[in-house]
Every structure is written in C-alpha cells, then in structure tokens.
Amino acid sequence: MTTSHFKRILLKLGGEVLLGDREYGIDPKAALSVANEIKSLHETKIQVIVSIGAGNIFRGMSGAANGIDRSTADYMGMLATVMNALALQDAVEKLGVPSRVLSGLDMRAVAEPFIRRRAIHHLEKGRVIILAGGSGLPYFTTDTSAVLRALELHCDIIMKATKVDGVYNKDPNKYEDAIKYKNLGYMDALKERIEVMDTSAFALCMDNKLPIMVYDFFKKGNTKRAILGEAIGTIVK
User: Fold this and answer.
1) C-alpha to C-alpha distance for 42 and 198, rounded to whole angstroms
2) Residues in the chain with pLDDT < 50?
3) Alpha-carbon distances, residue 136 vs 96, 119, 121, 151, 160 (angstroms)
4) What is the CATH number of domain 8-236?
5) Is the pTM of this model over 0.90?
6) Contact 48, 30 (CB under 8 A)
7) DSSP one-letter string for 94-119
C-alpha cells in the first residue's frame, strides 16, 4: 500500500461538490463520488479532516445581501453545512469508512460538538472527521473556519478543492495565454491579487506558514495523486 508523505490533511470542499446534475440541494450520487475520493485517501493511512461548505443550499453572504440580518444569515449557512456533512457521512460510511461529524454549533442530536482533543482521538483511531457548523460564530466564512480547525489540529496542508487545475495569473477560461503557477508564495499571491481564499483565511495561513494546495477535485483520483506527491495543482506556501 502506498503511503502519503503527509500525516494529517484538511480537505476543504465547497457545498457545490454535492450538487451533481442538480441546480440546488444534494445529489446522493455526487455524495457517493466524493466519498470514494475520501476513501482513497483513508486507504493510504493518512488522517483526513473534511470541511464542507453550504453553497449548494444557502450562502450566508448572499442571504445578507438580500436583506437578511448578517448574523442570522451566517447561522443559516452553518445549519446548511450540517445537512451536507450528514449526507457526506452517510455516503462515506456506506463505503465502510468510519467517520464522525463534529459541529461548531451545538447540535448533539446529529453531531458531536467540536472538541480539539476528541477530534485528535478520532483521527488517531482511524476515523475521518467531517467538520460542520463553521466556527459556531457569525462573520466567519467556511474558508476561515476551515483554516482555524486545520491550525488547531496541526494539519500538514489544506487541500482546497476547486474546478480548475491550479492557480493562474488570470482566468484560464477567458484567456488562452493564462499562466499556471506550480508554486506560489503568500506575498506573491497578495501582490498579484490572486484570490486563493478569503482575506482572513489567507492571512491565517500566511501568518502560521500553513501551505495550501489548490487543485482540480473533479478529476477522478486527483486528490490521492496529489497527496502522494504528484505535481498536481498549485501549492501556495
């Protein structure tokens, strides 16, 4: 069995990975496809933490822009991440991978509260952790809460799943001469105004020297190949 050179990673997924062919909500087939990618990581004996957003159901920022109080909108978004986490847990465990949903919001009927030592215990027991409920506080994006958890749990890297195969100097869908970066420094990304993550999340990574890998999650097997050392995507460090 091939082993990753990482011990512990955080996989940052947008809620859109659960859409499948739908315009809204959760497609069980899409959830199973994501679960297969997670299973492939688990088989390498790497410790896997998954942070999932809620873009397929509700975005706090969009809700606030449409007149909902920002704090209320953010809590609604956090609740939506719990729905996604439960759907993903169901798919992962159907494949025989043990998992736990840990929530920043207190929802003990469906998820364990996030407690750092308990999370580490689950990881050491070989369980996949699925994070939901953000940080439990409004005004923090899922990017920021994911970075906070990655730092708390001493992750080696954040794997940011996207639809593109890395970071470019300009939009590759619009410009044929767009240049892809293999490696990118934090300061270079700031100077070039390249949005890898939201500003708060990116600043946390930079201040704590936590690398970010941006890669195409939708190409089957890409995540496993990336953590096994293949030159996939862009590493920001």
Assistant:
1) 28
2) 1
3) 29, 16, 21, 16, 21
4) 3.40.1160.10
5) yes
6) no
7) HTT--EEEEESS--TTTSEE--HHHH
